[in-house]
Amino acid sequence: MERFVLDLRVALIATVVMFCAIFIAQPVRAQDYIPLLQEGNQWNVLHMTGEPGNWRHKTTNVYRLSEDTVIEGKQYIALLVSGDKEAARWDTAGFIREDAVAKKVYYRQRYWSYNDAWERIPNVFPEHLLYDFDVSIGDTVITTIEVGLSMSVRNIVDKIDSVEIGGRYHKRITVLSSDSISWCRKEPNEWIEGVGNTLGLLYTNIPIPCSCIYQLLAFIQNGEAVYNPFGYDTDFIWEDTSSEPVENAPPVTVFASGRTLRILYADAGDYAVDVFSIAGTHLLHRECSENEVAVSLPAVPEGIYVVRITSGTYSLSKKIRLN
């Protein structure tokens, strides 16, 4: 009998040790939901244009939260962005809200339209899902391609673990773009509870036509950089290695009025206008020399397009929406 009790105790101890070993071997997971929209949060996002190994422009867009606002009966927080070197000018990028119970984040981008008199009118795009942190491996989440764009992207949840940030474990979700969109990148993107993702706050891993990428340079809380996924030793970068400084670039305004593309080019010489679909398909090429150009695009479907203006060594790319 005593031997039976001893064997039983040994078995119980072995079982406890085994379960402890299994528990320790598991990755640490964040237990409580960490809200994304907290006072004092700031996102410094590195914007690079050019091509890998030869990024001609590196600038930092700084995002921070502002005042509450109500749109169509829903409570949002205005999202401010500064894109100048001194971070002195701040504009409203859009409006963001969070459902902490459902663990989802939604966004509405602000944009400017023009009337027939070419007067600017502020508008906002419809709301779209930015993040869903209540997912399981294998789930498919539909988001947008990039801030303000209307084309959807299928993201497949590939992995769920956690990452330590500021002494706290945050849930990390690795997503892959669906193969049903043949032109998207296959590299993973990481959504992080309470942070956003490794490409900033508003961006996904879908490439932008005309060679443009984003990276989260630093996630800042109450003035302190607490997360830097790419290992930069600074939280602000502003470089221009092109042959013509950005501040000396010719003043060009590109916008759409309905299905008409309008270009205002001060002191224009000879320049070329190219229009691409958001997937990179070349739709139009036109040689111009006028200061004001109107290009009618009645056969082009409604959506987001990229317009590229090229003059000598100067090149400008801008996204527009045709209604």
Task: Tell me briefly what this model is.
By secondary structure, this protein is mainly beta. It contains one helix and 22 strands.
Low-confidence stretches: 19-28, 179-184, 242-247
The shape is: globular
Q: H/E element string?
A: HEEEEEEEEEEEEEEEEEEEEEE
How far apart the termini lie comes to: 86 Å
What's the total count of β strands?
Answer: 22
Supply the number of helical segments. Answer: 1
The largest β sheet comes out as:
10 strands, antiparallel
Please report which band the strand proportion falls in: under 5%, 5-15%, 15-25%, 25-35%, 35-45% or over 45%: over 45%
Q: Write down the overall mean pLDDT.
A: 78
Q: What helical percentage do the residues reach?
A: under 10%
Structural class: mainly beta
**Radius of gyration from CA coordinates:** 24 Å
Brief descriptors of the model:
323 residues; mainly beta; 10-stranded antiparallel sheet; 5-stranded antiparallel sheet; 7% helix; globular
